[in-house]
Amino acid sequence: MNNSRILINDLKIFQGINQNIINVLLILFGTFLLTISAKVQVPFWPVPMTMQTFVVFLIGSTYGVRLSFITLVAYLIEGALGLPVFAAGGGIIYLTGPTAGYLFGMTIAAAAISYFANMGYSTSYIKSFISIMIGSIIIFVCGVLYLGSIIGYTKAIQAGLLPFIPSEIFKIALAVLLIPTLNKIIK
Questions:
Q1: Across all residues in the chain, what is the average pLDDT?
Q2: Quick check: 129 and 137 in contact, CB under 8 A?
Q3: Contact predicate 17/30, CB 8 Å
Q4: What is d(CA 145, CA 3) in angstroms, rounded to the nearest whole number?
Q5: Nearest Cα to 30, choosing from 1, 94, 73?
Q6: Which CATH code, of 1.10.1760.20, 3.40.50.720, 3.40.109.10, 1.20.1250.20, is assigned to 7-186?
Q7: What pTM value is reported for the model?
Q8: What is the pLDDT of residue 1?
């Protein structure tokens, strides 16, 4: 993989290490962060919040396109194999159940955010906001469309979108503040 834009490659401690080893470690680290972020619930109004989409924003903004996509696919594979990486466990049912659209949307969103980061969007607060908003929209469009096909679209919007808007705004703001700042510090 050509990962010339991976932010972590700019850290001096990774200089001279085989890129394939770094990629495998980053994939494992990314799936670990996704697992932890799915399990930890933060009290928030109107529903408790996980930090899973925030980690997707971080992976998308700091990894290259292919590496972010592969990291999210690896996460889905881990879950499909039965590892308890999702919020309530693991198993193939999660990839066909009501939340499947959100999981697949996160995979597409990470790659889309990485694409924009490759064009320099992760170094500017405004551009970072744009790319992360696009990623968030991708996650919720995929999630609500799939959920709507199961329970109806009105219910899907009421249960799978509206309660999550306040927490998503918080995670977007946090990511937009953090990512360009990290870019400035590391570079």
A1: 91
A2: no
A3: no
A4: 33
A5: 73
A6: 1.10.1760.20
A7: 0.92
A8: 43
